[in-house]
Amino acid sequence: MQRILINIPPTRALGFCLALTLFELTTYMASDMIMPAMLKVIHTFNADSRHVPYAFNLYLLGGVCLQGLIGPLSDQLGRRRMLLAGCALFSAACAAAFAAGSIEAFNLLRLVQGMSLGFVVAVSYPALQEVFCEADAVRLMALLGNVALLSPLLGPLVGTLLLEWLDWRELFLMLGLVAALAWLGLYAFMPETVGALRRDGKRLASIPFSWRHTRQRYQALLGNHRFLAASLALGLMSLPLIAWIGLAPVLLMQQQGLTPLAYGLWQIPVFAAVIVGNLLLDRLLLTHPLPRLVSLALWPFCLGLGALIVCSQLGAGLQAVVASLALYAVGLGMSNAALYRLALFCSEDSKGLVSALIGMLSITVMGAGGALIAASGGGNSLSLFALWAAGGGLLALPLLLGFLSNNTSHSASTP
Does 309 map to a domain? Predict the structure, then answer.
């Protein structure tokens, strides 16, 4: 069992990890399982196809809406109480999608459902860092990333199969029920880390909430150039993958004329590559410091994005674009959890607030960047998508190089 830093039984820590995994997987499935049905959704409401990527980007931006409040509140009220509230909100919003009567109501519910991402990032991730030691926390983050990536990998396929028997409304109702099951698991097993006595004798004290004090703490974080560079780089590095998730239904089913099943199968190489990157991270953690791991990940990351640019100039087909995305995705999988840990410990402030700002910055970059790629014609052809997605991802390089240059002599601090 992982090295647990607070006084809870290993079985409870395991139950917490499993319940958290189910909640995180369900939040992503709420997006990816419905993607094959998005053309049916817009047909139901007689809406334009532009709502396909917009609905996905609204889901991402929903994750930003409450994070600035969720993180500081969890520092005072506790991680457990806030995560239970977020899980309940997500379950209710999924169930409400069953009765949506217009594309506007549907998009609003997507925004509310996306708020669950704020609870995952600003509450559950700091809790993991506080329960487990550094190496195990990074390993668990990577493993959770693998589980979450099963959603875009399997979600389109599972959604396609379920749509043979269920309506898209019933899919959302089913997701709401699964989220309710995750809530029960979190209620039974999640420990409270705020105020808990650690095995090293330290106690993580709660921080009273104050609008003025919170604003000052956020301002101080925004003035931390290393933190800012790492947080923005997290969003930019994920941008090509996020753009692919949002635009793939239009590019593959509408532009290429593929069936929903074929669309789902073309997701497998990309997301399997991210999982491969995460497994490489798990292996290399034993012998490499975190900044070195991020530096190594830049090789497949840059080669994949460079290949995407070549694809855009040569007008390459779907196979070449997906192969390039897969190479990039290996680098993303190798770096994401390590870079998150480095960003989290760029500041000595409470991890709920720091994690909230990481999430707000990175998700804003992903959501706004995805919307810009869609508005710039990224959904019109594979060549335009490849060009804009690669350009967005490569914007992370200056930030990463500056950040890593300040981390050559040390790795993330142990909490």
Answer: yes
Burial group, residue 276, by CB count within 10 angstroms (0-12, 13-18, 19+):
middle
* 201 burial type by CB count under 10 A (0-12 exposed, 13-18 middle, 19+ buried): exposed
Q: Give a yes or no: residue 412 inside a domain.
A: no
Report CA-CA distances (Å) from 359 to 4, 281, 373, 414: 25, 21, 21, 21
The answer to whether the pTM exceeds 0.85 is no
Mean pLDDT by 10 residues, the chain (415 residues): 60 85 86 79 82 77 80 83 93 92 89 86 80 73 68 72 85 93 93 62 62 87 94 95 87 86 85 88 87 95 97 92 96 91 86 81 87 89 95 96 74 39
Number of domains in the chain: 1
Q: What was the pLDDT predicted at 205?
A: 57
Task: For residue 372, give the CATH number of its domain.
Answer: 1.20.1250.20
- Domain extent, residue 47, equals 10-191+221-405
Question: For position 389, what pLDDT does the model report?
Answer: 96
Phi/psi at 78 (5° precision): 110, 150
- Say if 228 falls within a structural domain: yes
pLDDT at 415: 37
Residue 48 resides in a domain:
yes
